[in-house]
Amino acid sequence: MKIGEVAKIVGLNASAIRFYERHGLLKSTRVSRSINGYRVYSPTDIEEIKLIVKFKEFGLELKEIKSLLCEDSKSCDDLITSLDAQLLKHRKLEQLIQERIKLLLAAKESCKAQCPPENDVKKCKVSDK
Q1: How far is residue 62 from each of residues 1, 30, 38, 53, measured CA to CA in Å?
Q2: So what's the architecture of 3-74 in CATH?
């Protein structure tokens, strides 16, 4: 299957697939070429590209994806470890976002309650507590 067809199937553009190939995420030695030089992708290649897309959706970095897909000794446990790291990272971000929301809500309420009569933002007594 040619790159354009593969791109439609996996929801990427052809340049993204070439990018993954250039960066070693796809084993370009396995991707064959037609007589006229076009890349020809196998069903295995397509499944691997779908995995790359899924791993990117999980927030994994290209280096990590390459390690998972291109090193023979990688296991499902390695993927689970990577996913656990992503979960921890996102939980910390979620906590920071929740703290920021509380801060913003408190500041908004403080501003509403203490807005000076002249309605000048420079004189507004914004408190975060």
Answers
A1: 24, 19, 25, 10
A2: Orthogonal Bundle (1.10)
The two three-digit tokens of residue 79, written as one number: 């993927």
- 3-state SS assignment for residue 39: strand
Q: What is the pTM of this model?
A: 0.73
Helix (H) or strand (E) holding 33: strand 32-33
CA distance linking residue 94 with residue 59, whole number of Å: 15
Helices 3-10 and 43-57 pack at an angle, to 10 degrees, of 40
Residue 60, amino acid: L
Token pair for 125: 């007594």
State whether the Cα torsion 80-25-12-91 is positive or negative.
Answer: positive
pLDDT one-digit tens code per residue, 24-81: 888 755 667 777 878 889 898 999 999 999 999 999 999 999 999 888 778 999 999 9
Give, as one character, the DSSP assignment of residue 40: E
> Residue for token digits 């993204």?
16
